[in-house]
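Researcher: Sequence of DSBA-like thioredoxin domain-containing protein follows. Predict its structure.
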Amino acid sequence: MWDDSIDISTPKNLSIALRKVFNPAEVQEILHNTSTEVIKSKLTGVTGKVVKELGAFGCPWFWVHDGKGNAEPFFGSDRFHYMWNFLNLPHQDLE
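Model: Prediction complete. Tokens:
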């Protein structure tokens, strides 16, 4: 999303970003599926749920489960070290 400051809100730029990970046929399928009513409906439903039920207010939003029945929300790409701490995962803290 933020790599190379590409605005992925346009199909052309989204295609450029997707080609870094997917082959051309997969990119075409992804772009096609983004305009289908099934996908639009799923996105609307999931977005509504995370905003209304989980309190999400931005992107990226992570709801992290530790496998022991505990879950916490984390907002922002600069919060990964907090997620690793929550999960008791080893990591090198920010310096």
